[in-house]
Amino acid sequence: MKNMYGKELIFPEDLYYTEELLWVKDLGGSKIRIGVSDLGVKSVKHLVHVKMSAKTGDNVAKGDSMGHIETTKGVWVINAPIAGTILEINKPCTMGNANPIDSDNYGTGWIMDMEIGDAGELKTLMSGADEETKKWLVEKAEEIVPLWEEEDDEDD
Fold it and tell me: Does residue 2 register a pLDDT over 70?
């Protein structure tokens, strides 16, 4: 499935997702990594600038604003998907650079690492391996951006 800009939408099953279009990866122990899902990145034409208000060492509650991303369509607030302590913010994000998020959101474009107090909180998020999550992602994608179904052009 592709969005209207011709970009493929990808949702790795080993991640958790939030209704705010973030992804969360369990790094083991009590550590998680947070980023913007493909749906978030590709629902806009381009991410312009990142402004992080949270800093390394900050304790955040679930739902706290940690910063925002300016896009070609407006401003998108980044809310904490889980309560915890910020261990590290990806260097490009601290400098306002949204390019890594825009070009490699599941790789070099991660936003931050956190230590969480209760690993059980991950279960409050949507698991990428769950069929209900997959259905929600497709429905949300259709709601947010027009999609193009890939057609088989090998019959030429």
Answer: no
